[in-house]
Design a protein that fits this description.
The complex is a heterodimer of chains A (580) and B (280).
Chain A lengths: L14 E8 L4 H14 L3 E8 L7 E9 L10 E6 L14 E10 L7 H4 L4 E5 L1 H7 L5 H13 L3 H11 L3 H18 L18 E5 H11 L4 E4 L6 H13 L3 E4 L3 H13 L4 E5 L1 H17 L3 E7 L16 H6 L8 E3 L6 H16 L2 E7 H5 L1 E5 L44 E3 L13 H17 L7 E4 L4 E6 L2 H14 L5 E5 L1 E3 L3 H7 L5 E6 L5 H9 L5 E6 L8 H13 L1
Chain B lengths: L30 H15 L6 E5 L14 E4 L5 H11 L4 E7 H7 L1 H10 L4 E6 L34 H8 L3 E6 L3 H13 L4 E6 L12 H4 L1 E2 L8 H10 L4 E7 L16 H4 L6
Parallel strand pairs in B: 1-2, 1-3, 3-4, 4-6, 5-6, 7-8
Antiparallel strand pairs in B: 5-8
Helix pairs in contact in B: 1-6, 3-4, 4-5, 5-8
The chains are: A alpha/beta (580), B alpha/beta (280).
């Protein structure tokens, strides 16, 4: 399967540890170092960030899962919750589910863990993180917690040391905090509750430690993007902050725009100038951009808009994940406005899917919307180095002084050569007004029909190859999903397969245009489908039903964010539904 | 320039910058003369037409790009400056002109106007101000007098008019001028200076709408050259602009602000170098 995710998802769970505390307690740093240590020791892993609405000082948690094999998403339960303080950490109770075997580790000075965590039956262990750090001059409590959590997971002390040394600068700070890590490791001896990781397998290929936002930014640059204009918005900002210095290094530019109306029009202008261009935003920004995206459709200007989705509508839940923008991404433009909508299927796939989006936009002279989300964007994972894709991203341009040049000529493919300013003999005016083939504004019936047909044809008739979806496994029952929801679905299907239950998995990467013929082929022999997504109104299911012939027996599993879909609940749902 | 390298051709005339398309404007519209002034300014500078891009939004005056022989971009209402900023930053080698009206530039596009001034990207923004929305048949714009009666605002809006030149100055435009469509040669001279001047150049052209504001025909009797030379002192320029009668023509301010810093620099690394930071 050429499109199969490079990271085969295993049914087995690995170790899941949550580090929580008030903002400023250093839990995010401890979490990042724990992931770095795991990576250094040869493991794969993932760290999901969650935090309260406060800019600084609110509750924060780093949710980690570490395993000898690639990990794309979180498990059903956490083996351990390590809290530096209890502040408002009870607010994460839904996001940090515990089991009876779990261990809850709290700061000794703070007394018992909140009732909501004890209710799971998890064992409580008090650790004097603060007192320990105080006893080692110049050390920090979060480093004691790092040592403790690392030891629970079974990570070697050296890996924890190396991770800390990579971050700490001053020699005396290093010495103090290595001692703090050691004290944490010592305190964890005999605590139990967590099955330590088995030794990692051999490293067969290069690995990266990368967030989905960085991955999307890097994929865009691999695809040829050299101009970005954007307005800061959670949770897309880190993508822009990564791209700004990266673009400067490679001869590109990033403009911080005054608003999203400006961002989208800036990238349309830059792309009109021949430079592949992108913006990144979240739902509120996408809503503001829809007129500009329509301009890119009408003027046939390639652009890429990455929407790192968050809870909506309106300001919604800015720092938490939800797949609620599928409807606006597919249907939100006014007029008949064919365009591309893609969705990465994992953190690593953010590289390839964004690169593909750039290639398709350039090739088809159309806007492409990439639906990432907060889970993918702000999580960081150890991944196998994503392969470079050999994609034909060339924009078709006319020769200098091309005879009888017409910018919007009606061609069999629907794609017509796009002159770049500076090219002699092919001047034209790009226009959002309906126009003739030559680009002159026209309200003529024939011109409108011709250009609508042209713009629809180029999107509909393009050969998108095998990349449109990952189609995995066999069975008369199929799960259809997209984006970050596919991570839990894939693990659920893998777990069922390990039990001998066969379920087909179809993860769409190209949402629009919907490849109805290919989907029909993928559904050949399938008598029932379960559509899995993370939003309140089953937007994906309704979208599929509006365009595709799904089997009559169909069911939707949809739930709004920010609670992640869990592989276990999906496996149970699928098994029960399959037996129904 | 070395004489041996001088072009063997005759300098281009204004006609070389006109397309064959017939404007949609009403007879007597001031915009005809502004179009003519733009082509004269381009001829004066003898710029290669395909190396010039004319960008606009929506409105009567925003139709200008297609009436030139340059590359044109006719975008959505109010966003011309944004599109032009993206184009110029991505393609600093091009000469980028932006044309539009008072509704497009000061109302729906007002925020972009402020930020284009302060960003100081090397653009020339020519606004044809007629104090009315003409394309939608006569509604008040931000520069309309508060008591001007219209169907949409019977008896007038009661809202004071916007002062684009002062706003431009306060926001950081590096070149501020006022021109009048009835004086196409003077307007051409001002636009040529605006194109040559580095940074963001703003040219407000009083351009009568003879259909919805026929009284603006009288502007020809009101305009007069500014009594003093342009200053490079923004405070002095602001005082002059705020106290003049609104009909002083010419370059009013020529600043020395540092140009926009965010243009692309030569590459120091390749794409493959970028992935090093992710490698374990």
């Amino acid at each position: 399967m050429p499109n199969a995710s490079p990271q085969k998802t295993h049914a087995a769970g690995g170790v899941s540890i949550a580090l929580a505390g008030s903002g400023g307690s250093g839990v995010m740093t401890a979490g990042t170092l724990l992931l770095t240590a795991a990576a250094g020791a040869g493991y794969y892993g993932l760290m999901v960030r969650t935090s309260g609405p406060q800019i600084r000082g609110g509750e924060a948690a780093a949710l980690l899962r570490i395993a000898p094999h690639p990990i794309d998403g979180l498990d059903d339960r956490f083996d351990a919750l390590v809290a530096l303080d209890w502040g408002n950490v009870q607010r994460f109770a839904d996001e940090i589910p515990l089991a009876a075997h779990s261990v809850v580790v709290g700061e000794e000075a703070e007394g018992e863990a909140p009732e909501i965590y004890r209710a799971s039956g998890a064992r409580y262990v008090a650790v004097p993180f603060k007192k320990t750090a105080k006893s080692i001059a110049g050390s920090w409590a979060n480093m004691v917690a790092l040592g403790f959590a690392g030891a629970l997971a079974g990570l070697p002390r050296e890996a924890l040391h190396e991770a800390a040394k990579g971050t700490l600068k001053k020699a005396e700070t290093v010495a103090a905090n290595l001692a703090a890590i050691d004290a944490g490791v010592a305190a964890a001896q005999g605590v139990g509750g967590v099955t330590p990781l088995p030794p990692p397998g051999p490293r067969s290929r290069a690995r990266w430690l990368i967030s989905g936002n960085e991955a999307a930014g890097f994929g865009a640059i691999r695809g040829g993007v050299r101009f970005v204009a954007a307005y800061p918005i959670t949770p897309a900002t880190e993508m822009l902050e990564w791209m700004a210095p990266a673009l400067a290094k490679i001869g590109g530019a990033l403009v911080q725009a005054e608003d999203e109306l400006a961002s989208v029009n800036m990238i349309v202008g830059a792309s009109y100038g021949g430079v592949p261009s992108l913006t990144a935003t979240a739902g509120p920004g996408l809503a503001l951009m829809t007129e500009g995206i329509g301009l890119a459709v009408a003027s046939e200007t390639p652009i890429v808009v990455v929407d790192v989705m968050r809870g909506g509508p309106s300001t919604g839940i800015p720092a938490k994940s939800e797949q609620g923008d599928l409807a606006i991404a597919t249907q939100g433009l006014h007029g008949d406005a064919p365009h591309l909508v893609l969705a990465p299927t994992s953190i690593a796939d953010c590289v390839a899917t964004t690169q593909w989006a750039v290639a398709l936009a350039e090739k088809l002279q159309a806007p492409a919307i990439v639906l990432s989300d907060q889970f993918l964007g702000q999580s960081r994972a150890v991944v196998d180095r994503p392969d470079e894709l050999a994609l034909d991203a060339k924009r078709i341009v006319p020769e200098p002084n091309a005879p009888d040049y017409k910018r919007y000529r009606d061609t069999p493919s629907g794609v017509s050569p796009m002159a770049v300013p500076g090219n002699p003999g092919t001047v034209y005016t790009a226009d959002g007004l309906e126009h003739s083939e030559g680009g002159i504004p026209s309200g003529n019936v024939r011109d409108h029909q011709l250009q609508l047909d042209k713009r629809a044809r180029k999107i509909a008739q393009h050969d998108y190859g095998e990349r449109w979806a990952d189609v995995e496994g066999e069975g008369e029952a199929a799960v259809i999903t997209f984006g970050s929801a596919s991570i839990a679905a894939r693990e659920a299907v893998a777990r069922l397969a390990a039990q001998g239950v066969r379920v087909k998995l179809i993860v769409l990467r190209l949402i629009a245009p919907l490849r109805t013929a290919e989907l029909a082929r993928a559904l050949d022999g399938v008598s029932r489908v379960l559509v899995v997504e993370q939003n309140h109104s089953a937007q994906f299911h309704r979208y599929l039903r509006s365009l595709a012939d799904l089997p009559a027996r169909q069911q939707s599993f949809h739930r709004p964010g920010p609670l992640p879909l869990r592989p276990g609940e999906l496996a149970e749902t699928i098994a029960a539904w399959r037996n129904a | 320039m070395d004489l041996a390298e001088a072009p063997a051709r005759a300098p281009r005339t204004a006609a070389a910058y006109k397309s064959s398309y017939k404007p949609i404007w009403c007879p007597g519209c001031g915009d005809f003369s502004v179009l003519s002034a733009i082509t004269k300014a381009l001829a004066k500078l003898d710029l290669t037409p395909e190396n010039v891009a004319v960008v606009s939004g929506i409105g009567c005056s925003s139709r200008i790009p297609a009436y030139t022989s340059c590359y044109g971009f006719h975008g959505v209402h109010g966003r011309a400056l944004a599109a032009a900023t993206g184009l110029k930053v991505a393609r600093p080698d091009l000469t980028v002109l932006v044309t539009g009206g008072d509704g497009d530039g000061y109302s729906i596009g007002g925020n972009h106007f402020l930020h284009a001034c302060r960003r100081n990207v090397d653009l020339t923004y020519v606004v044809m101000d007629n104090h009315v929305y003409g394309m939608t048949k006569g509604q008040p714009s931000p520069t309309t007098e508060p008591d001007w009666d219209s169907k949409l605002s019977p008896g007038g809006t009661g809202v004071r008019a916007f002062h684009p030149l002062v706003i431009a100055l306060a926001s950081g435009a590096n070149f501020v001028a006022r021109a009048f469509s009835g004086d196409p040669n003077g307007t051409a001279e001002v636009i040529a200076q605006a194109i040559v001047h580095p940074g963001f150049s703003f040219v407000e052209v009083l351009s009568p709408c003879v259909t919805f504001r026929p009284e603006q025909r009288d502007w020809k009797d009101a305009v007069h050259p500014a009594p003093v030379e342009a200053t490079d002192d923004p405070a002095r320029a602001a005082r002059r602009i705020m106290t003049d009668d609104g009909f002083n023509l010419g370059v009013l301010y020529k600043g020395n602000r540092a140009p926009y810093k965010g243009y692309p620099a030569p590459a120091r690394a390749g794409v493959a170098d970028l992935e090093k930071e992710f490698e374990l």
